[in-house]
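Researcher: Here's the sequence for the chain we discussed earlier.
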Amino acid sequence: MSDAHDEEFDVSDVHTGGGNDLGLDGIAILVNGVLVNSTEEVEDLLQVNGYLEVSFVFVQAKSGGNFSGEHIAALLDGVDEFFEESPTLPMNEKVTNSRQIMSRAIACSTGSGLSLGYSG
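Model: Thanks. This is the structure I predict for it:
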């Protein structure tokens, strides 16, 4: 996460872990370089800047030193489901909120990017 956003932030703002988290431990949405946590923040940045550049950072962290292809596949599956137009898997409140932010930000975006992080 620090590779994509070098300002201080509260980990609870990006932590999604728990049940129904699509196998994603963290989701960060950066709009014009600002970590956003609501659609209102997206709207404010659009009004102030007149444009939106959006980046998505997805993190999966596992304890232990073993590299696991299974965990990498779960991360990729979770990201795929996150961007699905009609997702089928259950999602917790934090993931659902992130999807709402994503939908609004992409609708107004002039550019976007994606970053995946795995720590195992």
